[in-house]
Amino acid sequence: MGHPNQWLFLQRFVPRIQGAILEVGSKDYGTTVPFRERLGHTKYVGVDLEAGKGVDLVGNLSTSLCGLQPGSFALVICCSVLEHVLRPWDLAKNITRLLSSGGILYVTVPWVWRFHGYPDDYWRFSWRGIETLFPDLIWSHRCYSTNVPGEFIAAQGGRDDRMALTHQGRKYLPYLQLHMLGRTS
């Protein structure tokens, strides 16, 4: 988990989960509190590209299901991962396959943020881009957050300049992270 708003969004918008939880990109780098500790869930699997604290399974979900059973997770958490994946559409397909019927995907991606490679930094996604990556999900919440804890702004269609700031005649967007919830039918 990166920014505290990821945990706050999860608390605010995700109902109590009955079933297994998968966290994609679960390695704890020592600078955040992992979801696993906060959720206290009995069936929790953390997957990452490399071993470390918070990682139960080392693997690349963009290339395979890594031995995980299709349809076995009630919640998949994928925070600040998609921008680092060379072929995010492959990861999206496998995440969708891992969700159970009625399963929930909580995904966050940076919309406005600096380059940050791990192992590299390839993409920035709009909410339409996320919906396109996961065409089989039904989306219920789309919000931006800034660095202000608990501040969530609904993502809307069309031209959206509500968060724009002007300084010396230039228009800027602050740090913005996109939070979305999707559900299988």
Task: Provide structural commentary.
The chain has 185 residues and is of the alpha/beta class. The chain is 18% helix and 31% strand. The chain contains four helices and ten strands; from the N terminus they run αβαβββαβαβββββ. It has an eight-stranded mixed sheet with strand order 3-2-1-4-5-10-6-7, sandwiched between helices. The protein has a two-stranded antiparallel sheet with strand order 8-9. Strand 6 (138-145) and strand 7 (152-154) form a beta hairpin. The longest helix is centred in the middle third of the chain and has 11 residues, at 88-98. It starts with a helix and ends with a strand.
Question: Briefly, what is this?
Answer:
The chain is an alpha/beta fold and about 180 residues long. The protein has 4 helices and 10 strands; from the N terminus they run αβαβββαβαβββββ.
Question: In percent terms, what proportion of residues is strand?
Answer: 25-35%
Helical element count?
A: 4
Strand tally, please? 10
Strand order of the largest sheet: 3-2-1-4-5-10-6-7
What is the residue-averaged pLDDT?
Answer: 90
Shape: globular
Summary tags:
185 residues, alpha/beta, 4 helices
Would you spell out the secondary-structure blueprint of this structure?
Layout: H1 4-13, E1 21-24, H2 35-39, E2 44-48, E3 57-58, E4 73-79, H3 88-98, E5 99-112, H4 127-133, E6 138-145, E7 152-154, E8 165-167, E9 170-172, E10 176-183
Parallel strand pairs: 1-2, 1-4, 2-3, 4-5
Antiparallel strand pairs: 5-10, 6-7, 6-10, 8-9
